[in-house]
Amino acid sequence: MARDDKTGIFEEARPRLLGLAYRILGSRADAEDAVQDTFLKWQEIDDMAVASPAAWLTTTCTRRCLDLLKAAHRKRVDYVGAWLPEPIHTASDDNVEEKFALTSSLTTAFLLMLERLTPKERAAYLLHEIFGQAYDEIAAALDVQEAAARKLVSRAKSNVGVDQARYQTPRERQEELLTAFHAAIHGGSIAGLSALLSADVKLTADGGGKAATVLGVLSGKDAVMAFIAERLTEYWSHYRWETADLNGGRGIILRGEGADEIAATVSFGHDAEGRVADIFIVRNPDKLAQLKGPASTELNFWSKPNRDRC
Q1: Which of 36, 148, 199, 240 gets the highest tally of CB atoms within 10 A of its CB?
Q2: Residue whose C-alpha is closest to residue 152's, from 131, 175, 129, 168
Q3: CA pair distance 310, 124, nearest whole angstrom
Q4: How many angstroms from the chain centroid is the CA of residue 194?
Q5: Which own/partner pairs from 47-54 qualify as long-range (CB within 8 Å, at least 24 positions apart)?
C-alpha cells in the first residue's frame, strides 16, 4: 500500500480515534498524544499483514489510552482540589438525532461517571455502548477472551447504573439557564437561577492548585446560591462572557482582558426533570489552553468505523 493511501486511511479514522481517546482519558492533550502515538506505530507496521486497518487502529489506540490512563491516575493522587475533565468545544446539531449518543457521552457528568469504572471496564463500555464495537473486537482490543469482554461491559453497566448523566435538557432550557446565570452574576437577581436548580445541586471547581477556587464540592441549593451571590458576583463581574457549546451542551467561557486569556469555563449537568444537578467550573489554566484555538467539531462523529473504506 502506498504511503499516501496509508496516511489517508489513518486520517479518515482520526476523528473516531480522537473521540474514543478523549472519552477514555478526559484530556484533549492526552487524547491527541495517544492518537499521534497510534499514527507513528501505523506508519511503521507492514500494513499488508493487517486484515482490518480499522480494528488495528482502534486496538492500538485503546491500549495506548489504557497506559496513559494508569499514569494519569497516579498523578491525580497529588492533584490539588477536585479534578474535572478538560473542557472541549463541541458542535451542536439539534436536527441530527443519531449524534445524541456521541454528544451526550461528552458531558462532564458522563465522563465523571466513567471514573467509577476500572480502566478496562471503561474502555469496554465505551467501545460497545458508544462506538458500536462487537464483543470479539473488544476482546481483541483489550487482549482478553470474548467472554471476559462481555463481563467487562456487563460490570460497567452495573457500576454506571441508570444513565442519568447522559440526559440532555432541551436547548431552549439551556439558554434560559445561561441567561439566568448571567443575571445572577451581573444583575444581582438570583431568583431566576435558583428556580432552575435542583434541591441537591452540586458545584465542583477545578483549579488544579494553579488558580484560586473553592477546593471542596459545594452541595445543596442554599450553599451553591450563597457562593454564587457572595463570591462569584464579586470575582466574575469584570470578565467578558462568551456562550459556547462545551462538552455537548451550552456553557460559558469567561475571558480576561487579553484576547487569548481564558479565566474559566462553566458547564452544567441536568437531571431528568431538566433541573440543574451539577455546576462544573474549570479554572486550571492547563486545561483551558486548548480552548484558545478555533472550535473543533471532530469529537462529535464516528460512532462506528467505516469498514468499506478501511
Answers
A1: 148
A2: 129
A3: 22
A4: 26
A5: 47/1, 47/6, 48/1, 52/307, 52/310, 53/9, 53/13, 53/310, 54/13, 54/305, 54/306, 54/307, 54/310
The partner residues of 131 in beta bridges, in order of sequence, read none
Rounded Cα gap, residues 111 and 19, in angstroms? 12
What's the residue count for the chain?
Answer: 310
Amino acid (one-letter) located at 175: E
Q: C-alpha grid cell for residue 308?
A: 468499506
Residue among 173, 171, 170 at smallest CA distance from 196: 173
Residue 170 has a pLDDT of 86
Long-range contacts, 91-94 (Cβ 8 Å, 24+) = 91/245, 91/295, 91/297, 91/300, 92/171, 92/245, 92/250, 93/300, 94/171
Place of cell 463481563: 151
Q: What is the pLDDT of residue 95?
A: 44
Facing residues of 184 across strands? none
Q: 217 is written with which cell numbers?
A: 464540592
Burial 110-136, CB ≥16 within 10 A → b, else e: bbbbbeebebbbbbbbbbbbbbebebe
Outline where DSSP puts E strands in the chain: 197-206, 218-219, 240-246, 249-255, 262-270, 276-282
Is residue 46 a contact partner of residue 19, using CB atoms and an 8 Å limit?
Answer: no
